[in-house]
From TrEMBL:
The chain crosses the membrane at residues 6-28, 210-230. It comes from the Eukaryota. It comes from Gouania willdenowi (Blunt-snouted clingfish). This is RING-type E3 ubiquitin transferase. Residues 271-308 form the RING-type domain. Pfam families: GIDE (PF12483), zf-C3HC4_3 (PF13920). InterPro entries: MDM2_MDM4_MUL1, MUL1-like, Znf_RING, Znf_RING/FYVE/PHD. It is found in: Mitochondrion outer membrane. SUPFAM superfamilies: RING/U-box. The gene is mul2. The keyword Aminoacyl-tRNA synthetase does not apply. The keyword Membrane applies. It catalyses: S-ubiquitinyl-[E2 ubiquitin-conjugating enzyme]-L-cysteine + [acceptor protein]-L-lysine = [E2 ubiquitin-conjugating enzyme]-L-cysteine + N(6)-ubiquitinyl-[acceptor protein]-L-lysine.
Amino acid sequence: MAEFSVTATELFCMGASFAMSGICYYMYRRSRAVVEQLDRVPNLPIDESLINLIRVTPGESLQYAVIEGTVKLVWNSLSQRAQTDSETTILHERSSMVPFVLVGSDETTVRVQEPFHASGDYMETVHEKFYHSVSTFGDIIGQYLSGVKPKGQLEIEKMLKVGTTLTGVGELIIDKDGTLSLRAPTNGAEYLLSLRDFSHVKDVALSSTFWWKFLFGLYALAGVAVFSWISFCYYHNLKALWRQEQEQREFERLNAAGLQDEEDNQPDNTCVICLNQPRNCVLLDCGHVCCCYRCYQALPQPRCPICRQAIIRVVPVHHT
């Protein structure tokens, strides 16, 4: 019987599944931490009381807060992309930013710092046009060598318009010039800007948490399934070895208790496999006496070499 071994495919599947489950669990914990932070974060109106609140706060800053206001100035981003059969590659991207503020109900303003560092979809697409590619002979040669054939170029312009209601989640501080500002939190919390209200921001975070948790469970289940299959194969192999050893002990015991005839070494009683040793075992359930016990153990599969029927057990034979 062949020794038990784990295939490279099984090892790869199990390792990849557990690795992906670990990555998904890490992302789930990060998403869960964001959700917990959003549950605790205060939603503050932009008015004079907000400035007074920050002034009496130690360090004149709120580590994490939510504000909603109207954009007063604009910044935009223009990017040109090339579409291929398999991926989208950025060929050129130009971004320009004009400082803007969020205006509250009583004309109190909050300056938004470093909006490029914020996550979230907070710009509207104002221009989108696709240009089909025209390839020269040199481009065709390059595409043949690289294996990538562009379909064309997609030009997109996104802009944050004046008058848009924007939700910001971050750290509120008072600058040295007395201006109230929103910036990325210094404690590592997520900096968010969104065109939707705060409840929608929380729903998006909850949805992300759910999907990361689902993917973690899915990959972990796949890894456990592969590990269970390997364990089952290992147990099946051990069980077969134990049964083989038990048969060998029983065969030796019964063989020692019997007497073999002098004609065991006659040509008509020779093992049909090795043609050397006498036939000294009966293969059940078919009942054929055709080989020696050593050759039976060397069979690649437990099947009778005469009739190909499955071998259930083996007992020694004694000639009288």
